[in-house]
Design a protein that fits this description.
Shape: elongated
Strand content: under 5%
Number of helices: 22
Helix content: 55-70%
Distance between the termini: 111 Å
Order of helices and strands: HHHEHHHHHHHHHHHHHHEHEHEHHHEEE
Strand order of the largest sheet: 4-3-5-7-6
Structural class: mainly alpha
Radius of gyration: 29 Å
């Protein structure tokens, strides 16, 4: 054989040619070439696999963000978070602000992460980038968890579409929070991602990695982290005979490294009265009833149905796929544990009224039951379809995706948010409240203290000024609760409204708008407030320095007059 012919064979190496020319057995040369090429083939395969994963995750992340309503900056919980971030970056920022004091230890790990990004790329850009990172982490966790059960990428996309649309209650739980979180990036999105990473790691028996991921979950959200530790602890107890002292120590260290910030903050909150001060059911109902009471009968029905799907899928795979059976059993146990914790939460909230149990908010992780139910359903469909052919599995996944999108498109069956491809910034809204706050930022002294409608949110975020208090920025448990009540009582004329949760927003604002000039003057003297922002319908007409369609700003009498 000629050298040219050896190259055409495909092995193309002089080594093979020389072996043939010298009439030596070529097998050892073939083996040598195979050993050289096998790592190269594996490397190429990993690159291709990674590229497919990146494409799948980026596509589903974009889809989830759009169907979650796009990206929002400055709304909702951002109004309490960003002033704390500004204080972290500048210790002199609103030095005596009561609202910052309330939120100083609220999700502090996330506040420090946000502060780091703000330092690098600015406030709005930081929140946008964190939004993209959070949703990407979340979709990577869903991808890896689904692939643990050996389903196709198209099947993973079907799961992601169910999560994005909330069809069949997927991504929702027994209270108002969702799996993907709000349009404004918040700690639960990261906490849910790390919790799902931790469960995936547990299924693969990577126990030290699981401990690290539990610590990261606790870092981002105290209640979700505590619930995760409780439901995964039995799996570690089952390993007590197999684990050495070094194994236990390694897990403890890996868990503690990210969790230390939260542990220190928890210690600080305990010193501020987190446990010792009184805290009752009425306190919960006045502030955040939506985080504690059951969302609806429909929510309970859907969660129960998803739990049934999880158990049914386990029964199906029990006699079919051994490897999948071993992985589905922990999912069943975790789902039943989450159900039990949720029932304990509601038992305390509705019957026992201890208060100490509901503080942990076990119900926050109930959103995982429909997630597991959706994954179990998709796995069951794919296992059954693949028994016929791969083409049947493809048709089944595409049909599920199309049906889900159809149910989302019909308003009568839509359970998720309206879609959006934009970025909403609170400071750019054509709104009278925003306009008044921005005017204050440009035209009043930086140390000025304001009274403002307590039901409105975003005052300090928009104006860079302090106000007496507001309903949205409320205490963690009983910390500063009495003073918060006292401020709201003063702002509403001496008596708190009797509504539940967000129903108090309108009641507080209506009472504030009815305050007389004398009452506002007394508020100014008590809290050293220099200005008051009032609804335009207020009867107070003295010392108006600014006015728009819905609000006016008055200057209060100098202190002591």
């Amino acid at each position: 054989m000629t050298r040219k012919r050896a190259a055409e064979v495909g092995l193309g190496d002089v080594v093979l040619y020389e072996g043939l020319r010298m009439n030596k057995p070529p097998q050892k040369h073939i083996n040598r070439i195979a050993m050289i090429r096998e790592p190269q083939a594996q490397s190429q395969s990993k690159i291709i696999e990674c590229a497919k994963m990146v494409f799948c995750v980026s596509s589903t992340t974009t889809f989830v963000i759009i169907l979650n309503g796009g990206i929002s900056v400055g709304f909702s919980n951002h109004t309490g978070l960003i002033p704390v971030v500004r204080r972290i970056l500048d210790p002199n920022y609103l030095a005596n602000d009561f609202n910052i004091q309330l939120r100083l230890f609220h999700h502090r790990g996330f506040a420090y992460l946000t502060a780091a990004f703000v330092k690098l790329i600015g406030e709005d850009n930081a929140l946008i980038v964190l939004n993209l990172l959070g949703f990407t982490f979340l979709n990577v966790s869903v991808y890896l968890f689904c692939r643990t059960f050996h389903i196709s990428r198209l099947a993973v996309c079907a799961v992601s579409v169910l999560i994005a649309t909330n069809v069949a209650w997927v991504g929702r739980g027994l209270e108002t929070n969702t799996f993907v979180g709000n349009r404004e990036i918040n700690p639960p999105t990261f906490a849910h991602a790390f919790a799902l990473f931790a469960i995936s790691s547990l299924l693969q028996k990577r126990y030290k990695q699981t401990a690290l991921l539990c610590g990261l979950t606790l870092l981002f959200h105290l209640q979700i982290g505590i619930s995760l530790v409780l439901i995964l602890s039995p799996f570690y107890l089952m390993l007590r005979d197999r684990f050495s002292v070094q194994d236990w120590f390694g897990c403890l260290v890996l868990f503690s490294i990210p969790a230390l910030i939260t542990i220190f903050d928890l210690h600080a909150m305990l010193q501020r009265g987190l446990v010792t001060l009184p805290f009752s059911r009425s306190d919960i109902d006045f502030r955040q009833v939506h985080h504690f009471e059951i969302a609806s009968l429909k929510a309970a029905t859907w969660v129960a149905l998803h739990l049934a799907i999880i158990i049914s899928t386990y029964i199906f795979v029990k006699n079919k796929q051994k490897s999948d059976r071993e992985k589905f059993f922990p999912v069943v146990v975790i789902s039943l544990s989450l159900t039990a914790l949720s029932l304990i939460h509601f038992l305390d909230y509705y019957l026992l009224n201890f208060g100490s149990i509901v503080k942990v908010q076990f119900v926050r992780m109930s959103v995982f039951i429909p997630i597991f139910g959706a994954i179990a359903l998709v796995c069951l469909i794919n296992y059954r379809a693949e028994q016929r052919s791969k083409e049947a599995a493809i048709v089944a996944n595409l049909s599920l995706i199309m049906l889900t999108l159809l149910l989302y498109a019909v308003p009568a069956t839509r359970q998720g948010r309206d879609y959006s491809t934009g970025i909403r910034r609170l400071a750019e809204q054509q709104d009278s409240w925003v306009a008044a706050c921005l005017w204050i930022r440009e035209n009043t002294p930086p140390d000025a203290l304001f009274t403002s409608p307590p039901g409105n949110e975003g005052f300090s975020y928009l104006s860079y000024r302090s106000n007496v208090g507001e309903f949205k920025i409320n205490p963690d448990g009983p910390q500063y609760l009495a003073e918060w009540y006292a401020r709201l009582r003063d702002l509403s004329g001496g008596e708190l409204p009797m509504g539940k949760g967000f129903a108090n927003v309108h009641l507080l604002n209506r009472a504030y708008g009815a305050l007389s000039y004398e009452q506002l003057s007394n508020l100014g003297k008590k809290y050293n407030a220099k200005f008051a922002i009032l609804p335009k319908s207020s009867a107070v007409q003295m010392n108006v320095i600014y006015e728009n369609e819905k609000y006016k700003i008055i200057e209060l009498p100098p202190f002591g007059k």
